[in-house]
Amino acid sequence: MKGLLPFCRGLYRLSNRQAIRKAWTVGSRCGFCGTQSGKQTQPNFGLLFDIDGVLVRGRMPIPAAKMAFEKLVDSQGQFVVPVVFVTNAGNCLRQTKADQLSHILGVPITLDQVILSHSPLRMFKKFHDMCVLVSGQGPVLEIAKNVGFKNVVSIDMLRESFPLLDMVDHNRRPKLPSNPLGNLPKVDAVVLFGEPIRWETNLQLIIDVLLTSGNLGNVHQTQKRPHLPLLACNMDLMWMAEAHSPRFGHGTFLVCLENIYKKITGQDLKYDALMGKPSELTYHFAEYLIRSQAMQRQWKLPITSLYAIGDNLMTDIYGANLYNRYLDERVSRKNPKAVAKMAATTGSTTAVPQEDEMDNMWESELAQPSATSCKSVLVCTGVYNPNAEVPSDANHCIKETVFHGHRDFRFDPALVEPGHIVKDVAEAVDLIFEQEKFVPK
Predict the structure, then answer these.
(1) Average pLDDT for residues 348-375, to the nearest whole number?
(2) Strand pairing of 238-239 and 247-248?
(3) What's the number of CA atoms in the CB half-sphere (13 Å) around residue 292?
(4) Residue 39 neighbours by CB under 8 Å, 6+ apart
(5) pLDDT tens across 299-352, in order?
(6) List of long-range contacts for 70-78, beta carbons under 8 Å, 24+ apart
(7) Which of 415, 247, 245 has its CA nearest to residue 316?
């Protein structure tokens, strides 16, 4: 756990939870407090809940979860605020996860309230007609087809067609000489859903596909050349189950894959897309679902604030703050004074994001967000350990930090600084209602 707390300038300050809670109570922290003097009965905010470490530990519900959701539904069982569950899990279908949550929380959850790490793949339409190799566990073929892929090959299918490629486990080696069956189409792209069960098999066959450009009958080509498109979901290095300490996540598998590829080729593995928290893409998709819920309920107030509740600094807090930064930049682009101020600070207008840079796939697919802020709330029931030792010298804590985020995400102390730290999810809901001056009808 060393390295999960000592993230920097802000976290050193934030170790005193009572002082922070008091500061927030008087409304002095980051604009968290509502601006209306009276109470409001219709929401202008939405809630994004992580699942593992916030609502459950493995298969065991966290006691505060039911308490929290009793406050979020009315007597008819309808949510009083828009709610989306954003998890980096990816080994099941959205409906399956919705059913699990309904059972755990005792309230009806629909699939449109659930975002799994692979959910944004439905927007990557240019890959949907390609033959894709998928890695993970659970019903991976069904998951791939559910998000839009039409021609899918699993690791097991690949292994059956090329039995001589998987050689680590002596007990699984072919007993008799065999030739490749060769009845599979050429692989055009690779999609990594989540951590697989047999890492050695998946690592070997994925590397084989990348180094042969999908033609497994060929020898490896290790000279400098672009490899097949690669899409990866779920970058969590670790996650919290029933054990006392966090367990390996898909991010650990990606570390293995990246380092093996670089060791063999001397080149960095390149991703066409990384999704799941902390990717902005995932939060933009969540904001779209929050907006859709508000429209379906015919709530008149636009959803301007999001609150992301999680247990992991490197995914939940980093991702929420990264998306908040994106929302800030959108506001700045519409404000000439803010643009001028940013240009004066940097000495150049090139540092100011331009509108055409943001006119990308996910905004065109999901429309412009109505939210102007995404605020992070850290709970102490999962990966984050409030009792971890804080460095005695705050000036050196950044240098001493072990960054648990993905290789392609830059470590920024501000992005792992939570807006607030609370004991559990029930306390988080109480805090948000208080700050928004919200009283359900």
Answers:
(1) 61
(2) antiparallel
(3) 14
(4) 437, 438, 439
(5) 999 999 999 999 999 899 999 999 999 999 887 766 555 444 444 433 433 333
(6) 71/426, 71/429, 71/430, 71/433, 71/440, 72/47, 72/107, 72/429, 73/107, 74/440, 74/441, 77/107, 77/108, 78/297
(7) 415
